[in-house]
Amino acid sequence: MVDAVDIVRSSMAEDLAKIEMTGHNVANVNTAGFRAHVSPPKNGSEIGTVVISNANGNLVATNRKEDLAIQGTGFFALQKGQDIALTRLGRFVVNTDGFLATSDGWLVAGEAGPIAVNQSNFKVTSDARVITDGLEVGKLQIVNSEAALKTIGNAKYAAESAMRVDEQQFEVHQGQIESSNVDVPAEMIEMMATQKHFSLTQKYFLLYNSMLSKGINDLGK
Question: What DSSP state is assigned to residue 116?
Fold first, then answer.
């Protein structure tokens, strides 16, 4: 027999997880490259595992040639040793070895390995080709993952597997950064609905508990 208390407890825990997730999304509305979380982790999920929104964030012009943004499907692939990470935050630099990289040491992955631009006035085309002095020196890896992603900080995600995205599904924009894709009005509506559901569930629990206590007391008479 299903325990009504367990059902109510589970429902309230899910509501609290949704409220926490919504608060996290709203707190990151101004975080460039942030992807809104659309589903809280399920019980038993690995810590940090999330389901994220695939909606585009707005583009913000920076006029830095190292800054890149994706519109459409996919992530930039990053590598550090044997580790691979995905990100939509294309705020890159040219490191001391002349490779396109992040400020915290991840190399931007190309389809044939890291991409050397050597501080030159390089250009990145909408289909992710990197051009230096009129020559193509590499092509950015734009990838996606069907598996759940795990947050690893600084707008980066780890994935068990990643697949190449067809170039018809994205556009790369140079000199721009993608802003957070959090939809604040939608988040607030979701939070109010969840809070209302939590309140109603809590009232049901108190009523059920009162009826149960009364029944036990009546049996004792």
Answer: B
